[in-house]
Amino acid sequence: MILREQSGVPLSIAGLSVAYRAEPVLWNVHWSARAGSMTAIVGPNGAGKTTMLSAALELVPRLAGEIRFWGQPLSAVRERVAFVPQRESIDWDFPVTAKDVVRMGATRGASWWIPSWARRLSPAAKDEIHRADSALAQVHMTDFQDRPIGELSGGQQQRVFLARALAQDGDLILLDEPFAGVDAGTEDVLTEALRALTAQGKTVVAVHHDLDTVAERFDDVLVLNREVVAQGAASDVLANPSVKRLFRGSEPEFATLS
Amino acid sequence: MIDTATGSAAALSPVELAEKWFEVVSLGGGHNTNVVLAGVTLLGLAAGMVGVFSMLKKQSLVADAFAHASLAGVGAAFLLHGAFFAGGGRRNMAVLLLGAALSGSLAVAAISWLGRRTRLPADTATAAVSSASFGLGIVLLSLARRISGADQAGLDGLIFGSAASMTRGDAQLMAAVAGIVLIAVLGASAPLTAAAFNERFARVRGLPVGFIEALLAALVAAITIAGLQAVGMLLVVAMLVIPPATARLWTRRVPGLLTLSGLLGASAAFLGASVSAILPNAPAGALIILVSAASFAISLIAAPHRGLVAGLIRQRAVRHRARAEAHRPPRPIAGTAPGTRAGTGGGTST
């Protein structure tokens, strides 16, 4: 694979294959995100959507393939890449408040190793607090910032986790099922916040489960079913017969497409 | 052991005992007693804080396995030491503790390997390794007894703990280890919290998650080893587990949880050790754990929000409201299918 001048490509994946034990879950995926766009990754259950994000973020080992962020490895551009994991991976009884969670997104580099009581005195603290507070405000969660996360509704929890990514102030946001199990109000708040990011030239990539809403919320679509089935502008991809065939009757939420 | 304890207690009237206890807690029990008391209290403080992160990572049982497995190392170290230094019998605490640390670490490594490489559930792997290594420890220990009958007490002391037999040097070493652990926990509390809360996120943020996990394991190991002599390998785990569990009932954020857990651990240690100082044969470890367990029981009943009484009151209030509502006509239903997605959208978390 020739890596051309890629400094303008937020995320490019070339020849990516991943297996759990001997079971391949992703095979030879080639795909790049378009800068300033919002892309949905869709596909049936077990298609490897989450695995693709995990592999890109070096959370699972890959068999083959190359991942580049703006033409560089992740380690060189970590601060620019933000991540919102799946709701299921969180322990909701953990003793943290909404504000604590968002602060973790705002904390950078060496600040981690300064204990919280001493961090107030550090020069970076003001900037961190500011970024955390404005991220909370952006998802309308300022009034709930002192609640333990377990006492928030599912939608509010999802907003807090988006705020954590926003507080990092990265240029590429990767989200795993941000719209799963949230209320309509939160759907709008999330979409608005993500749109605001692309308006600033930032790039959003989200695993998405609801094919009905893909076209209205996203610019581009990547359809995965272990391999890339289709990719491109949302309207083109959704009109593609092989994509329709893939989803027909496979899952209730996709059935309405045909 | 217990018989003699009650025996000596019977020799003194309750008033005399109370006077003696006041003498000890006001640091009038002699220099040696004070050093042990201070060391155990510092150990309780550090254990309470480290234990918070074991609890948050749901790894309390790993600490238990480490402690159980350390017995095998003690036995092996005793045998090897005896074989190389023909004197036999004479225990060398540093060698025994080193053996304990090695075998404990081996057990934790084995548990982690089983978790990664096999489909064994984590709790099964932990219990299997823990009991197997404890069995090995018992065999080695009985061999050690057979070979050199001398100084069993020193080895038994490591199982059940004997703060009374600690030398000033032992206590100072324990205090030093506890102090180092305390500083490490305070310094690394933010990364430890982040890695325990959301490991994938911590990795993506570039935190050295592998190092943080190793650090936590090392701190747990250090507390366990440091506490072997005073509290004993079977009970030192309780110092890591009970104070955090108690503190969690009263707190909702990590900083408060850390502080309260440390204070609970320190005060239980201080109380337990001071009582054991006036009842010479009452083991400090057992007393510390009993004090700790009592505070847990009280908290479990009385704590706001998470306590049993508070839970019952909330449950009653809800039932009351439901019954009151039942007498009123139901409100008209607003919509059908799409209505499930609208609304305030709680639900999923409860």
Explain what the structure shows.
The complex is a heterodimer of chains A (258) and B (350). Chain A is of the alpha/beta class. Chain A has one domain: Rossmann fold (3-Layer(aba) Sandwich), CATH 3.40.50.300. Chain A has ten helices and nine strands. Chain A has helices at 49-56, 98-106, 116-119, 123-138, 154-168, 184-199, 211-217, 234-239, 241-247, 252-255, and strands at 12-20, 23-32, 38-42, 64-68, 81-84, 172-176, 203-207, 220-225, 227-233. Chain A is globular, with a radius of gyration of 19 Å. Chain A starts with 11 loop residues before the first strand and ends with a helix. By secondary structure, chain B is mainly alpha-helical. Chain B has a single domain (2-302), classed as ABC transporter involved in vitamin B12 uptake, BtuC, CATH 1.10.3470. Chain B is 77% helix and 0% strand. In chain B, helix 3 packs antiparallel against helix 11 (209-231) and helix 5 packs antiparallel against helix 6. Chain B is globular and about 90 Å long. The model of chain B is unreliable at 1-9 and 337-350 (pLDDT under 50). The A-B interface holds A 54, 57-59, 75, 78, 81, 83, 85, 89-92, 94-97, 100-101, 104, 107, 109, 112-117, 119, 148, 150, 152-155, 157, 164, 168, 181-186 and B 56, 186-191, 193-194, 196-198, 200-201, 203-207, 248, 251-255, 257, 341-349.
